[in-house]
Known about the structure:
The protein is α+β, with helices and mostly antiparallel strands. It has a single domain (about 1-140), classed as Alpha-D-Glucose-1,6-Bisphosphate, Chain A, domain 4. The protein is built from four helices and seven strands. A seven-stranded antiparallel sheet has the order 1-7-6-5-4-3-2. Strand 4 (about 60-65) and strand 5 form a beta hairpin.
Amino acid sequence: MYSFGEEMVIEGDIEAVWQAATDVASWPSWDPHEQKARLDGPFTPGTKGWNKPRGAPAGTFTLVDVDPRRMWSARAGIPFGSLRGVNRYEPLGDGRVRVSKVFEVHGPFGPIFRLIWEKAVRSDMRLTFEALQAEARRRAAAGG
């Protein structure tokens, strides 16, 4: 297994951050990384979804773990293996939340992922965290 990740402290209410991060259908409206997305059921383990990241092929994913307002993870198939994304949210107080995302690449595709996509995905994560902060603020200001 090969893994890498990023983290960032953002400003926002944990409820608004969680609500934005888990509203899959809305991802394309605020996340610069997502072009299209949907979830085919409730935000619970076992539910399947589909997304089309910008500059990458579309694919399905399955929610694996969900700990409300703390973390969620999803697994997607890739050639000869799988990709697992683990998203964490840690309230720090004073309206700040540490957000992080770790990608785990399982199977022989790891070295290729590292060479071709890691740098771009890392920079996209920072942009996504900043966009999540803005969306959480927007939702909080709108009352949910």
